[in-house]
Automatic annotation (TrEMBL):
PROSITE patterns: CS. Residues 14-104 form the CS domain. Pfam families: CS. This is CS domain-containing protein. GO terms for biological process: protein folding. PANTHER family: NUCLEAR MOVEMENT PROTEIN NUDC (PTHR12356), NUDC DOMAIN-CONTAINING PROTEIN 2 (PTHR12356:SF18). One of its GO terms (molecular function) is unfolded protein binding. Signal peptide: none annotated. It comes from Solea senegalensis.
Amino acid sequence: MSVHFEERSGVIPCRTPWGSWYQTMEEVFIEVNVPHGTSAKEVRCHLGSRDIELQVKGQEIFKGRLFDTTMSDEATWTLEDKCLIRIILMKTNREAGNCWSSLLEGEYCANAWVQDQMQRKLTLERFQRENPGFDFSGAEISGNFHGGGPDFSSLQK
């Protein structure tokens, strides 16, 4: 579901010295630019439920405690075109209110504008899931969207 929503609405990346990261309600995507010609044998990647480490050609790219927990047995990494490492982490908490403000605790933080846009995107993704007959991919949102937006679950249908 989120893949189609992301294809239509785009992503809100948080730029870093090594590439970028972005998120959906379910996943965190990390894209790392590496020297052209890098082989998979030159990549060392540890994906834990609460920690992550990436080394390329013996150089540490990043290492630390993730902002929140993930399902480590569902995490993957790929090397694409020998110049891009793509890591996909599956969030444990898949609510729209679970918007990561940084990739690692205290590192690779989204600035205020990017954080705001990420939260808006997750809230619209939540609305799309709750209302599959509507297309929220190009929608604008204002007002109470932090924490996943307003809770309509108590309203009668």
